Amino acid sequence: MLIDSHHHLWQYSSEEYPWISNQMSVLKQDFWSEQLQLLAKENEIDGFVTVQARQSLNETQSLLDLAEHVSLIRGVVGWVDFRSPEVASQLDRFAANKALRGLRHVVQDEFDDQFILGKAFNRGIAQLEGRDLVYDVLIFAKHLEPSVKFVRSHPNIPMVLDHIAKPTIRAADFHMQWKNDLLKLAESENVVCKFSGVATEVRDSEWSIDTIRPYWDTALEAFTPKRLMFGSDWPVCLLRTGYQQWLKTVRELAAELTESEQEQLLSTNAIKYYRLEQN
């Protein structure tokens, strides 16, 4: 079985997706249910976790509505305004929908590098406790230090680190500070990690499996196969890699693992930690 723990869907418009710049022209098109079904067929994917791409309650609702009709979508990671006094009612709005498995905020785009420790934001995050929902942590490597404090402040909320915290990847210069901070974050057992979105962080003009391998080794050391899951970050990954190339890369990196550990990485961890509906 293969579960892709991280991908996005959108019906493109420049007004709704201003973060898609002119340098990202490959993303300026629809990636919706038809494209998802073709992707699954071509790559023998059994299910997906669909993750928000806009900080919008309407987008969260539209992804949940789509999940009702597209069985490939096993779960949705949506968005609510955690800083809002109305966050509890926003969570209540979606509470009855079993497809909602998590929520996230685009912390990486916040101007304040300490945003994740903000009082209002953390009051909102605390509302997740007891709701059977995961919080996805979307940050750059520079945010890891405050994020260590953040995850330790919410030990009863399951969290998933997206994209191994987006290190700056160069073949000739390993990001050691990222490694040190990632190992600290992984000490919190309520956090698991997606090996996704990695190729996009390569700053060299080209990349190979050898470029990626030190970051795989570090993620594996930090989280072990029990807390690591495969994700594609499709279609954003298309900025640096095709889907098949990324999947092949991860499979080759994981070849050193036992068969059971490979199953954890490629399917069972996503099912377990997101508590995905079985089709």
- The string of secondary-structure elements, in order, is EHEHEHEHEHEHEHEHH
Report strand %: 5-15%
Average pLDDT metric: 97
Distance between the termini: 12 Å
Shape: globular
Biggest β-sheet, characterized?
A: 8 strands, parallel
Give descriptors for this structure.
36% helix; alpha/beta; 8-stranded parallel sheet
Give an overview in words.
The longest helix is centred in the C-terminal third of the chain and has 16 residues, at 259-274. The N and C termini lie close together (12 Å). α5 packs parallel to α6 (176-185) and α6 runs parallel beside α7. The chain is globular and about 45 Å long. The protein has helices at residues 33-43, 57-67, 87-94, 119-126, 144-153, 176-185, 209-223, 243-253, 259-274, and strands spanning 3-7, 47-51, 73-78, 100-105, 134-137, 159-161, 191-195, 228-230. It has 9 helices and 8 strands. It has an 8-stranded parallel β-sheet with strand order 1-2-3-4-5-6-7-8, sandwiched between helices. The mean pLDDT is 97. β2, α2 and β3 form a beta-alpha-beta unit. The chain is of the alpha/beta class.
Concise synopsis of the structure shown:
With 279 residues, this protein is of the alpha/beta class. It has helices at 33-43, 57-67, 87-94, 119-126, 144-153, 176-185, 209-223, 243-253, 259-274, and strands at residues 3-7, 47-51, 73-78, 100-105, 134-137, 159-161, 191-195, 228-230. The longest helix is centred in the C-terminal third of the chain and has 16 residues, at 259-274.
